[in-house]
Design a protein that fits this description.
The chain is mainly beta and about 400 residues long. It has helices at about 1-10, 105-115, 130-135, 230-240, 310-325, and strands at about 20, 35, 45-55, 60, 65-70, 75-80, 85-95, 95-100, 125-130, 140-145, 150-160, 165-175, 195, 200-205, 210-220, 225, 245-250, 255-260, 265-270, 275-280, 290, 295-300, 325-335, 335-350, 360-365, 370-375, 380-390, 405.
Length: about 400
């Protein structure tokens, strides 16, 4: 019995693991591949809800070929079909599957202990099937060609054919209390051969196909609780969007654009003046925010990088260094190419260039490239000192000793 238990704990396919059949384009930590061709042929992401180990090796009586080998496993997997508006399960040999995301066993044990002390702890709570967030990351590409035009245009959109709905937990119960006749132990060896979740939840959701509510018994390993969001915090974000305010956090300044509701979570779409790109951030992870009418405290005026007017820039850089403020620069890379970067933990260096001439350089941590970069001061077209300070103990401090490379 101990050997069977060890097999289960050491197996890649513990119940609660997110898996897919091996031809699936997703892999461990590889989720950014865009699909082309027929996206409907893509298989779903699934969760292992049951594991059955072969307790002994068996052979085909006619050919003598090995059918199953002791220790090998079969996995019952569950997924959601938007076409049928229902959860489906089926058995797969583990050798045909690959792991997409492992379950956090420590989290699972804590969850099981909580249910043991109070079976109704999740009753009435809103939950998601755990593949939901990964399913919404699937993307498909379509190409449109106009008649008599050689140019093609490509559109990338989400592929949502296996995204489950938000559900409500009606009841939580122990698996052993279910009327199940399936054997847990091998009758001849006494070894455990079947592993299932200890706890099952009865979940209810709106079925758009039947226009009624549907119910399904789903293992707790497959579910993720949707945590409530402070409605006053949402109202604060909406006011900032409407009034076109800037929001300042500990390590970023953003211009909020809109709130998005996705998979039970509120997402803020905003422009970051630190990473200098559009970001989508879970509202629950934003932390404390402060409103501001502007994102900078001071700026140097526009000038021609060829005029040699660097005094204004130098003064601005020194002010940012003294106050440990983030610095946002517009930088000319030459040949008409401009780029915007935000720096922290920077310094001014006067050293010889390739021609042996003493030249001012700005060296600091570039939040777009996430590494140290070197900038020629005379190529900085303008700069703004952000309303954001960095501390010597910030996460960027570990980057200071990295190799300096040109931008």
């Amino acid at each position: 019995m101990q050997d069977a238990l060890s097999n289960n704990l050491n197996s890649e396919f513990v119940h609660g693991t997110i898996v897919a059949i091996k031809p699936h384009h997703f892999d461990n930590d590889i989720f950014s591949v865009v699909l082309a061709g027929n996206p409907l042929s893509v298989s779903p992401l699934m969760i292992v809800i049951e594991q059955l180990f072969d307790s002994r090796t068996s052979y085909n009586e006619r050919t003598g070929e090995e059918i199953s080998k002791s220790g090998n496993s079969q996995c019952k997997c569950m997924w959601f079909s938007t076409k049928k508006q229902d959860f489906i399960d089926a058995w797969f040999p583990s050798k045909f599957l690959k792991v997409i995301k492992k379950i956090d066993l420590s989290r699972d044990r804590i969850m099981q202990a909580d249910r043991n002390s109070n079976l109704n702890i999740h009753t009435g709570k809103s939950v998601l099937f755990r593949t939901c967030n990964l399913e919404t990351r699937k993307r498909k590409s379509s190409i449109s060609i106009k008649s008599n035009d050689l140019n093609e245009s490509s559109t990338i959109v989400p592929l949502l054919n296996f995204v489950s709905p938000i559900m409500q937990v009606v009841q939580v119960m122990e698996y052993k209390n279910l009327d199940s006749k399936e054997a847990i132990f091998d009758a001849k060896t006494g070894n455990r051969k079947r592993y299932v979740s200890e706890w099952i939840a009865k979940c209810r959701w709106y079925n758009s196909e039947s226009e009624k509510t549907s119910e399904k018994l789903i293992p707790l390993d497959c579910l993720e609780e949707i945590l409530p969001v402070d409605t006053e915090y949402l109202a604060f974000l909406q006011r900032a969007i409407t009034s076109q305010k800037y929001l300042i956090a500990e390590k970023t300044i953003i211009k909020p654009h809109k709130l998005i509701f996705l998979n039970g979570a509120y997402i803020l779409r905003a422009y970051s003046y630190v990473s200098n790109k559009i970001i989508n951030k879970d509202v629950k992870k934003l932390g404390n925010l402060t409103e501001s009418d502007t994102y900078f405290t001071d700026k140097a005026r526009m000038f021609d990088p060829e005029t040699g007017e660097i005094l204004t820039k130098i003064d601005g850089i020194k002010k940012a260094i003294d106050g440990r403020f983030y610095l946002r620069i517009k930088y000319s890379k030459g040949k008409g190419q401009d780029t915007t970067r935000t720096l922290s933990k920077f310094k001014l260096v006067n050293m010889n260039n390739a021609k042996g001439e003493l030249t001012n350089y700005l060296i600091g941590y570039d939040h777009l490239r996430k590494a140290n970069r070197t900038f020629l001061v005379k190529r900085i077209q303008n700069l703004k000192i952000l309303k954001l300070q960095f501390a010597p103990t910030s996460t960027e401090s570990s980057k200071e000793d990295e190799k300096i490379v040109t931008s």
